[in-house]
Amino acid sequence: MQIGSSNDSAAVKEQYATSKGLDIRITFHEMYSTNKQGYTPWLVSNYDICEGMKVLELGCGTGSLWIGHDDLISKCDKLVVTDLSEGMLETAKGNIGEKDNVEYRIEDIQNLSFDDDIFDVVIANGMLYHVPDLDKGLREVRRVLKTGGVFYCATLGENNFTDKLAEWFRLGGEEFNPNHNFTMQNGAEKLSVAFDDVTPVFYEDSLHITEPEDLVAYLRSLTSFKAVLNLPEQKIRDILEEHVVSGAIDLPKDYGMFVCR
Questions:
Q1: Domain annotation covers residue 2
Q2: What is the model's pLDDT at position 8?
Q3: Distance CA 58, CA 20 (A)
Q4: Domain containing residue 114: CATH number
Q5: 229 lies in which domain range?
Q6: What is the pLDDT of residues 25-53, one digit of tens each?
Q7: 87 within domain boundaries
């Protein structure tokens, strides 16, 4: 997830070059999300993956989607796990492991190396808002999907905790340029370039943060949130402390996914 402009490609590349920052953010959400099902388990619960299917994941990150789901992996005739970052892919390989039916590849959604009509399922979570030519990327997804195949893509909404934090830190203009390239509010229209049947599904959640110091670490893991990164850590703490109510900071979350057929 990103705070800042997607046009700052150097910041995006730096933010996702290794898994360290992403691990901080994943752990933070696991600790403080009020929906204890967990976002990743919720995503997986929506997937219809049957015996013998070929599945492609784009932008796999740390491979967290598949951790603890060996049963689902074993159903796949082939699971191809991909990312643009070699560092991320190595982390995913360590988390998922070497399996006969799992392949790890560097891939760009805008120029996939696969033949037409190969996959039953394609998954892309939290990455479509980074794609420079999204229309091209979505058409590539449609090209590699079999007839009757399903594309699952998760993203953020436009009413998220990042907007609230920007208000608290009095950010605006170039200091806070949220990435709304692909959201739960505009995603369906963007997906229509490649898919006729697009269904949004929302995930109900929020953040209840009892240790503000963890929110400080979260913010400092976001290289694109430069205006906050430039502040002294104590200043960040002081601003956050102003919003502690009954021992906690409460923030909204706006997440979901699209199911495209």
A1: no
A2: 45
A3: 19
A4: 3.40.50.150
A5: 9-260
A6: 889 999 999 999 999 999 999 999 999 99
A7: yes
Q: Over the stretch 79-123, which tens digit does the pLDDT of each residue have?
A: 999 999 999 999 999 999 999 999 999 999 999 999 999 999 999
Contact 113, 107 (CB under 8 A): yes
For tokens 């009954």, what's the residue? Answer: 246
β-bridge partners, 210: none
Q: Is residue 4 part of a domain?
A: no
Residue 207, phi then psi, degrees to nearest 5: -115, 135
Six-digit token pair at 213? 């110091």
Are 32 and 213 in contact, with CB atoms under 8 Å apart? no
Residue 220: pLDDT band with limits 50, 70, 90: confident
Our count of domains for the chain comes to: 1
Contact criterion met (CB below 8 Å) for 256 and 159 = no
The tokens of 56 are what? 């492609």
* Residues 6 or more apart whose Cβ sits within 8 Å of residue 238: none
Report if residue 3 sits inside a domain. Answer: no
- CB count, 10 Å around CB of 98? 8
Range name among 56-60, 70-74, 167-171 with the lowest pLDDT average: 167-171
Confidence of residue 175 (pLDDT cuts 50, 70, 90): low
Q: List pLDDT tens digits, range 95-105.
A: 999 999 999 99
